[in-house]
Amino acid sequence: MRYDFYAYMDRMKYIKRWQLMRSTREENIMEHSQSVSLLSHALVTIHNEVYGGKADVLKTVLYALYHETSEVMTGDLPTPIKYYNRSIQGAYKELEKSACEKVVNTLPCEMKKSIAPFVLADEESIEYKLVKCADRLSAYIKCLEELRSGNTEFSKAKKSIEKDLHSRNMPEVEYFFEHFIPSFALTLDDLEGM
């Protein structure tokens, strides 16, 4: 019997983000998922260790790892289209859920029960909320990278994403902004203290 789950997941490297924007460096959803996983681990650690939370670290990181699974079927729909109105947003959410279910169904039954809960995340959980913040942080950091390279195409996106992140009232995000975001403006020599 053939199982296609990991072949589907491997196709993430072919799906480009920021399709409507001119980028100095292209980004695919596989590298984006790694970025979101790393940032989710940071946010859940801040949540638990700095603010005394009890979020599940493994669940948070695995939600992040699989958060773009639907896009191996749907592609990366640009944000202005995805959120154009409530009707399109609702229909797209249903499409994403169906795509995730279809991909999960390419696993052997013995594995499905261990992987499906992370692909089909509990959207009401603190872990999922932290991942959504990490997803936006990843986009924000991409904007900083593009602006640092002289690409003003990302100016409006940076402002919009920053406003969105601060409006979430998540202390973990504010902590990350205060303590980690400033380093993203530094060169390698600056980071190494040269």
Largest sheet: none
Strand content is under 5%
Q: Under the CATH scheme, which architecture would be assigned? A: Orthogonal Bundle
Instruction: Classify the secondary structure makeup into a structural class.
Output: mainly alpha
- Spans of at least 5 consecutive residues whose pLDDT stays below 50 are none
* CATH fourth-tier homologous superfamily: Hypothetical protein af1432
CATH topological fold name: Hypothetical protein af1432
Give the overall shape.
Answer: globular
Summed over residues and divided by their number, the pLDDT gives a mean of: 93
Number of strands: 0
The tally of structural domains comes to: 1
Which range best describes the helical content: under 10%, 10-25%, 25-40%, 40-55%, 55-70% or over 70%? 55-70%
Rg computed from alpha carbons, rounded to a whole number of angstroms:
17 Å
DSSP helical segment count? 11
How do the SSEs run, as a string of H and E?
HHHHHHHHHHH
Span from first to last CA?
Answer: 57 Å
- Kindly provide the name of the CATH class: Mainly Alpha
Structure explained in plain terms:
- By secondary structure, this protein is an all-alpha fold.
- The protein has a single domain (5-191), classed as Hypothetical protein af1432 (Orthogonal Bundle).
- Helix content is 64%, strand content 0%.
- It contains 11 helices and no strands.
- It has helices at 5-10, 29-50, 57-65, 71-74, 79-82, 86-104, 109-119, 126-148, 155-167, 171-179, 188-191.
- Helix 2 packs antiparallel against helix 3 (57-65), helix 2 (29-50) crosses helix 8 and helix 8 (126-148) packs antiparallel against helix 9.
- The radius of gyration is 17 Å and the shape is globular.
- The N and C termini lie far apart (57 Å).
